[in-house]
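To the team - AG3 complex, inputs and output below.
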Amino acid sequence: MSGEWFTETLYTDYRQSLRISKVLHRERTVYQDLMIFENPCFGRVLALDGIVQTTEGDEFAYHEMLVHVPILAHGNAKRVAIIGGGDGGALEEVLKHDVERVAMVELDPAVVELSRRYLPSICGDAFDDPRAEVIFADGAAFMREADETFDVIVVDSTDPVGPSVALFEQEFYADCRARLGEAGVLVTQSGVTFMQEDEARDTYRRMKPLFADAWLYLTQVPTYGAGFMTLGWGSLSAAPRKTPLAEIERRFRAAAIETRYYTPEIHVAAFGLPGYIRALMG
Ligand code: AG3
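Output:
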């Protein structure tokens, strides 16, 4: 942060800055530096350890693709786990579906508390939904020790620096696989590929030996900068990713969800990858 600008320090040779019109909150939690500020273009912004996690203006481009793609590809998801996701944006999207239980496992209680206070436009009243259980725990340990099964597991993590490193390891993906029901799907955030090639490559290569179907898919989030973000995809069956457009359209209509980024067309198209990303997959 310098003067009235917030400058992200994620990369050594490329930076993005957002004007700070007002700082709403700043604290060093037990786990990380947390800041919530306002920007004229994106509205309220949540940053953790100096990295933009989500903004009121563009959170839809991330949370809708992270959640609706696996749930609608699965077709009958009743039990969902979210690892991370303390701002509640992913949780809110999951709860738009006809699910029975959502377990959200977040490391840092301060992220949930401050998101409820300052980011209600992102989390809505998701945290009060009786189908949701918020568990404050280490996501990797939770998956190692859990004994329930999930239809969809969504990993809504920070970048693999600091507390979330374990969420990018093959052991963690294997523990997730063990917790997935038939045709279950695991999705993870795997970085902005142009800048974070290793993240996408490692995610794919670590998932590939574990899952019947491993892939990456795309979204584009303005405040993550530098082009497409990929989301990692691992499934116990090839069927979910290959669900035809007409069937995705039918499920989307039946779910009666309003979206701003997600459409059945973009769902299917998101699995088509540019050459520079395809090349990372070998
Ligand atoms: N988690 C993904 C943040 C990625 C930002 N990093 C980056 N630009 N490479 C966001 C959590 C929101 N629920």
